[in-house]
Amino acid sequence: MPSTRALPRPVSRLDELAAEFGKVERALGDPAALADPREYARLTRRHRELLPLVTLLRERDGLEGDLRGARELLTDPDMRDPELRELAAGEVQALEARLAEIESDLVVLLLPTDPDDAKDVILELRAGAGGAEAGLFVMDLLRMYTRYAEGLGLKLSVLDASESDLGGASKVVAEVTGDGAFRAFRWERGVHRVQRVPATESQGRIHTSTVTVAVLPEADTEEVQLDLSEVRIDVFRSQGAGGQGVNTTDSAVRAVYRAGTPDEIMVVCQDGRSQIKNREKALQVLAARLAERERIAREERERSDRAAQVGSGDRSEKIRTYNYPQNRVTDHRLEGEGKNHPLDSVIAGALGPVVANLARAQRELQLLQMGEEGQHGAA
Question: What is the CATH number of the domain that holds 166?
Answer without folding.
Answer: 3.30.70.1660
